[in-house]
Amino acid sequence: MNSNFKKLLFNRVYKFLQRISCKIIGLSPWAVENNIYSVSMVGSYYNFLLSVVLSVFSLGGIFDHLPNPNSLQFSLIVLKRISFVTLLPTILIPLYYIIRQKQLISVYNRFAKVDGILKKCADFKLSRNCTNRVIFGVNLLTTVFLVVILDMCYYPLAVILYGNLPTVIGGGVMIQYAMLLNKIESRFKSINSVILKISEPKMSVVGPQMMSVIQEYQFHESILYDIDNLEKAYRELYEMCYDAANFYGIPMIITILSFGVRIIFTLYGVLVVTLEITTYILFAWPVVGFRFFWFVFLFVVFTSSTTEMKKQNRKLARTICTLVDQSTLDDKVVEKLSCFSSDLSELEIVLTACDIISLDRSLLGIATATVTIYLAISLQFALLNH
């Protein structure tokens, strides 16, 4: 009894923290009641107000204290202005959520439909794990620790706001998207497990008698029924993946660009201080260290979620091909599985951001190469000025 109560309490606290943290940064304008998502006018008004306040704040920061073009500090302050400019597109994300929220609400509400289809299968069991809770917990603790504790020890409030808001909002987008993909992936795993259990009926021996022809016919029909439901569920999940990708395309491009600029700015500052090119920038090294851990964590978690999604898709195709190759299966079952397999080849999941940036693990290599190139160019200019 105590164990069940603790689990229930933990789930409620987890859901509350997840929803309230997303609402604060403008990533959850909708309302949720009994796991049913709907448009909320209060949440939409809050997102609009958040965008207005952040727009005024960021514009003031960009034009405050114009630098002297003749000083060595000029390039560094220009980079600081660029860092401020990244706040402008980031604050458009809450507005984007207001406009496009119905599309994401539809995706979340379709989980109930998919689960209803899968529950019709004889051996269905939803694959559950703590991945989303761990991801959310680590991200929340890292964000709070960076913003509330470390940054307040070293920087004024204004610097904390413009220094962290883009990454907090962008990081929230990546974590929210990764958690959604993990929920979809768990359904793919369940489909895979049901497919693996498809086999010929075992001999049910009661004395000398074996399974009757009628029982065997009913068994085959139940398998065909399960395959139909699995295919319906798969198509729903496939459409949900692409609806989610369509929604998150623009926010992901904004997030990746914003993160890239800020990583280049931070690394540039670290290198020019380390190489004693300038002493203008003062870094709080603990803050820089934890912030890089946060950046790496976000990108690794997100790209891992998208890559695992593709792996499950390919694994399902291989599993079906293996079953089809077994000569023990009924001809109708083989035919149905073959049709399912051919559909899978046409419904391969490839997630991108607006068909521009691939969102699997190749994104890590592309991001690293891009940051390195721009960092090398910036350092060359700094060395020439020095």
TrEMBL record:
Keyword Magnesium: no
InterPro entries attached to this UniProt entry: 7TM_chemorcpt
GO cellular component: plasma membrane
Topological relation to the membrane, as annotated: Multi-pass membrane protein
UniProt keyword Transmembrane, yes or no: yes
UniProt keywords, alphabetically: Cell membrane, Membrane, Receptor, Transducer, Transmembrane, Transmembrane helix
Protein's cellular compartments: Cell membrane
Gene Ontology terms: biological process: sensory perception of taste; signal transduction
TM helices/strands, residue ranges: 45-62, 82-99, 134-157, 163-181, 245-271, 277-302, 363-383
One Pfam assignment: 7tm_7
Family membership noted in the UniProt record: Belongs to the insect chemoreceptor superfamily. Gustatory receptor (GR) family.
Function: Gustatory receptor which mediates acceptance or avoidance behavior, depending on its substrates.
Protein name listed in UniProt: Gustatory receptor
Organism of provenance: Cotesia congregata
